[in-house]
Amino acid sequence: MIKFFRKIRQELLSKGKTGKYLKYAIGEILLVVIGILIALGINNWNQKQIEIKKERTALNNLILDLEEQSEILEEYIAGENEFYKSGLYLSEHYARNKAFQINDTLLSKLNLLGARITFNPIKTTFSELVSTGNIGLIRNEKLKRRIMRFFNELERISEISSNNNTNLIDGLYNPLLFESTVFIHKYEYKSNYVNRVFKNLGTAQSRIFKPESLKNLYAASGDNMKTPEKALKLFNLIQIRTQMARGQVTSYAELQEEIEELVNAIKLEL
Fold first, then answer.
1. Whether the predicted pLDDT of 11 surpasses 60
2. Does a structural domain hold residue 115?
3. Cα–chain center distance at 26
4. What DSSP string describes 96-110?
5. Does some domain include residue 234?
């Protein structure tokens, strides 16, 4: 093709047809430019298709992460509900007896409130998109901002949960419990999460210790709970611990609702 165009140019020049040669040269340049533009257009189209494919993959992976997060939140909610019900039981026990009357059930409920659920946000795909700069693959700006807000909220709730666990449960509640009561656990909870954590411990403890072997420790616990200062502190901590569990249930349930809405929005984009 190049030889063909060169031959035409040479013939025009040899015949002295300069005007036609110039027109021809301009036409040839235009053809080259058009060819380049077409090639660039095809390349841009191919690149756009690659980016669209990457976007679809990212959005589908986000859906998988969100659905997994929702399933885990269901377990967290069940566990926090067990904590909440134990807190209510202890409050009603105190109101009924005007004191903490030591028995296996009371001790089991008290010690259950010393457990805590560590909230681990699932953000594998989102973190990868942000760290690689590929978050820009999501073309729908409104959807992108919504996704970013959700994962920021996920991180915020994770931090709140971690701070509550560290400051209230580990820092205040458990130290008082260890000083004042016997650790007793009964395998009696509906939450799979709680039972997975405590099943082996509860089984082993019931096999090793018999009620009569713990008689002196029960008496010591009872005496401790009769101390007004410790009873007051324990009562207050139980109220805070109960409300903390209720607050976690509410937060996790709201997250589940947001996940459902966000998944639907992503599916519409796909």
1. no
2. yes
3. 62
4. HHSS----HHHHHHH
5. yes
